[in-house]
Amino acid sequence: MPVISAPHAFNEGDLFVDLASICGYPLYLKCEAFNFAGSIKLKAANEMVESAERDGILTADSVLVESSSGNLGVALSMIAASKGYRFLCVTDSRCNLSTRLLMEALGSEVHIVADQDSNGGFLGTRIEYVRNLCASDDRYVWLSQYTNAGNWLAHYRTTAPEITRRFPDLDVLFVGAGTTGTLMGCARYFREYHRPVRIVAVDAVGSVAFGGEPGRRMIPGLGMSMRPPLLDESFVDEVIRVEETDTIRMCHRLARHGFLFGGSTGTVVSGATDWLSRHGTRNITAVAIAPDLGERYLDTIYQTNWLQDLYGDQVLDTEESVRPKPLPREAKPASSRAPVRRRSP
Ligand SMILES: Cc1ncc(COP(=O)(O)O)c(C=O)c1O
């Protein structure tokens, strides 16, 4: 084990969970939560802060400000505390309580916006608030995860190479899409890889990231209420959308096997399982990325009252959530959830 003196100096990049016995399909889950920020966002935060320091944008009297649904806010809080910067996180009412408390415990200020934007999300309102702040005082430095190339470069430099080190024969990669930093970094890397890898983006129903109708989304992390500026769809082979009820069921199925993951992981694994059920899985090497763990969702996804209030009494009342599917011998029949876009690899 390494010896470190700064919290952002440690990040476990080589842990994968074999989900075959839980999901019934050959699927490896890359776990991104084993660092002091507890999520994949540590990578983007590190890259963006270091590049702003190199460029002289971030100085000792700067105040970092960022719009985040939570995890980037925690990662930046940790880095800011370690490096001695002030940090203000602009988030919204969907941010988990524990995530907000974490940021405050690390010494950050948290501002919560309450007004929805025209797409029914909060992103537009959050960004407007940050813009006004930056216009009011030039000590504010906005790294802007939505447009900052460091967001995808972090994954091009770390996440994708970590996957290929363990799975050089990778066939298909499932990546959840928020800002699309993870997606674009991995997709760009694999476009240059020595063999074709199918890149499948997983989005939440109600997100407008890849087009489609805006709708209610209560689980933070995945999905956007605007088109992600970092997204270049020419690098994406397929997009699948997952209902929040399926996210919740998959989270609970994993938890019943002792793996307490966050909402995005439930979404990505649900989408990946569905995709694998519709394709031949013989000799296929498939990896999905798990952005965080479940502790931050104890008062939401893992809380019965919250679930029943939002999704009805029956949300977990299904065999799906408690029993693994049998391992398939080969291809499975098509399911009702169709991909929204497909391109040959
Ligand atoms: C829990 C969770 N899921 C998904 C994502 C989406 O990742 P990205 O912004 O790289 O698309 C994030 C990033 O904030 C996250 O924290």
Q: Please, could you describe this protein's structure?
A:
With 345 residues, the chain is of the alpha/beta class. It folds into 2 domains: 7-31 and 156-321, 3-Layer(aba) Sandwich (Rossmann fold), CATH 3.40.50.1100; 41-142, Rossmann fold (3-Layer(aba) Sandwich). It contains 10 helices and 11 strands. A 7-stranded mixed beta sheet has the order 1-2-10-7-8-9-11. A 4-stranded parallel beta sheet has the order 5-4-3-6, with helices on both faces. The termini are far apart. The structure holds pyridoxal-5'-phosphate.
Topology:
Layout: E1 16-18, H1 20-23, E2 28-31, H2 41-54, E3 63-67, H3 71-83, E4 86-92, H4 97-105, E5 109-113, H5 123-136, E6 140-142, H6 149-166, E7 172-176, H7 181-191, E8 198-204, E9 238-242, H8 244-255, H9 263-278, E10 286-290, H10 304-311, E11 341-342
Parallel strand pairs: 2-10, 3-4, 3-6, 4-5, 7-8, 7-10, 8-9
Antiparallel strand pairs: 1-2, 9-11
Helix pairs in contact: 2-3, 2-6, 3-4, 6-7, 8-9
